[in-house]
Design a protein that fits this description.
The chain has 397 residues and is of the alpha+beta class. The chain is 64% helix and 10% strand. It has a 5-stranded antiparallel beta sheet.
Length: 397
């Protein structure tokens, strides 16, 4: 009897729980569907922004920036001169497009954006975008996004990997530089209790950078102590000044400091390639690319193509082929991927596949790849001597 009573009680308990469990399942399903809908809205809204950028228009991008929120991010806890702050706030709406144009200056007015990755949860999202620059160079932005109450995508802020910092941080430091007060300069430094001399030197560096005075800046920098010279604000200010003034020789000096003080920082990996490759420091270039790839967390044809080039100069020919194949698989329309395929397949003497790359480069990208096109390129000599190339070239005459 006890067992029968226990079974009856247990069945009654289960029966009572079924409606509750069913209600919970319904709630979970409703939330899952709501999350999927938000993700679709996020993707569609951001796709419109990227499509507008590819028309070389910044209108949707500028409209998506939450101006008040961005102003608060720029100002933050920075001790910006009150008059500078007031003027910047008053003119922000009118000057926003100009600020964005400067942020995209490396594209030289021809924005080509490739959306690499996206993730969202609730009303928050993140997107990775590659920007194709002249001469087979690339930049990456990591966007912090949110959905507003009307389901519109808002750009909160973004990391620019060519600059090695967030947009808001770069503008904030620039505003301090207009009229750098002592306390404002001290707050820029990562160590406690800077001396009067250190504060003065940093102030003068900011002023020289503000005025584009490269020679004066480096005259000051050479007398700066190691503690101050190794500061992020110092290192980045030096890089940005030399890039803005297109001083290649001084830029190399600036990047030497980046490599010295922040060799493992993924935010600086992209800028360091301009030092590693010309200096033939290919191991470091490969490591920097891999750190950046890990930081971005997205598959990218351009990254694979550059990894192929680095592997090739390191004599890792099979790795170079594998990276090149990734590049053309991810994005068949990216020219650099086909150049990587051509060179890596030639290095491993897979001439039939090298010919496929030649064909693509001619048909899709408009090259004429006769023997004269490679007469100064010793790496291609074996391909030019091959039966496969001879047959291909004769068929094209």
């Amino acid at each position: 009897m006890i067992r029968v009573a226990l079974r009856i009680a247990l069945l009654s308990f289960i029966a009572l729980q079924l409606p509750v469990a069913g209600a919970q399942d319904d709630a979970h399903e409703a939330e899952r569907q709501a999350e999927l809908e938000r993700q679709q809205i996020f993707r569609a809204g951001f796709q419109e922004i990227v499509a507008d950028l590819n028309k070389s228009s910044l209108e949707r991008f500028a409209h998506a920036v939450d101006q008040e929120d961005m102003l608060e991010r720029i100002f933050g806890l920075r001790l910006i001169d009150p008059k500078v702050k007031k003027g910047f706030r008053e003119d922000f709406d009118d000057n926003l497009v100009g600020l964005l144009k400067s942020a995209f200056a490396d594209t030289e007015g021809n924005v080509r954006a490739a959306w690499l990755g996206f993730g969202s949860r609730g009303d928050r999202g993140k997107a990775i975008v590659r920007y194709d620059l002249p001469d087979f160079q690339f930049n990456y932005h990591e966007y912090e996004l949110r959905l507003d109450g009307k389901g519109r995508v808002v750009i909160v802020d973004w990391v620019d990997f060519m600059d090695g910092e967030k947009f808001s941080d770069g503008v904030g430091v620039a505003l301090i530089s207009i009229n750098p007060g002592k306390q404002a300069v001290r707050k820029l430094l990562d160590f406690q209790g800077p001396t009067e001399q250190q504060t003065f030197k940093m102030t003068e560096l900011l002023k020289a950078s503000r005025d584009g005075q490269v020679d004066r800046y480096f005259d000051i920098l050479k007398d700066v102590d190691e503690e101050l010279r190794s500061q992020r604000v110092t290192v980045l200010t030096t890089v940005h000044l030399t890039k803005a003034t297109r001083n290649r020789r001084k830029l190399r000096s600036a990047l030497i400091d980046v490599d010295k003080y922040f060799p493992e920082e993924p935010l600086y990996s992209l800028m360091l390639l301009d030092y590693y490759f010309p200096s033939r420091r290919f191991d470091e270039a490969m490591d920097a690319l891999l750190r950046l790839q890990s930081r971005l967390g997205a598959q990218d044809s351009a990254m694979s193509a550059r990894l192929s080039a680095a592997a090739l100069v390191l004599g890792k020919n099979e790795d170079a082929v594998a990276y090149a194949e990734q590049a053309i698989q991810f994005e068949p329309g990216l020219e650099l991927g086909w150049w990587s395929a051509l060179r890596s397949q030639t290095a491993v003497e897979q001439y039939d596949k090298a010919i496929e790359a030649l064909d693509m480069l001619e048909k899709q990208f408009g090259y004429t790849l006769s023997p004269q096109a490679f007469e100064k390129d010793t790496a291609m000599a074996s391909l030019l001597r091959s039966e496969e190339y001879e047959a291909w070239y004769l068929a094209h005459e």
